[in-house]
Fold:
Amino acid sequence: MVKVYAQALQRAAELLGGKEPLAEFLKVPVGRLEAWITRDEVPPMGVFLSAVDLISEPPSGNLAPGGTVGLSSRQRARDTVTAVLLSKPEGSRRLCSVTGFLHAAFLPCDGREMVESALDAAVAGTGADMGNLQISRPDGLVIVAQRGFEAPFLKFFACVDTAGSCGAALRVAERVVVEDVQSDPIFVGTDSAEIMEQAQARACQSTPLIGASGEVLGMLSTHYTKPRRPTLQEFDVLDHIAKRTAYWLDGGSP
Structure:
């Protein structure tokens, strides 16, 4: 896991043009930053998340005086999460779940807790009725965490390489959204359509967990009992959850 922290900080330094600009951006001494990059020390989780956000959404030269980014992408993410969740019923509980995951500090031995927390955050952040998180294995995507599903669904989707929205998203390494399972070509006429109907899953989305090398490390899917498409704000929340999950998975599987 220490390697993941170091890689994120090193990449962030490259994007900003060196360790000094990154240290100024993070408001930390250069010596401490160098210790984190060389893996002599583990950085605070807030520092790591700032680096991840910088990598995910580089500043494109739009720097404030002094070389720092005027409004950090982590602050924008927090504002987006707060806006979308507090606008919904039980918004405070959902906000707690999502921000709790985004700012949690997971150790290398906390893989199980991490994926469970990531899934809870995705379900809460999009108001989903069900969801699952899969990890990529040589023979396909394997469910390692789930909410709301029973045996038929879990058995059918236990290991997926092409079926459903998760299989489609795995093929293209991009998010796939199914607004209505009963009419979408991904499901119509397939065995998976019957399984989805039994599970009362009428809509779903699958977001790939993509590592630094571009490899799909897993899949984060949420499901809904009525036809629907998540909002742009909900997609933004999902993206931030997926980015952090992928960086943690780069350091070891649960």
Notes: The chain has a mean pLDDT of 81. Residues 2-65 form one domain.
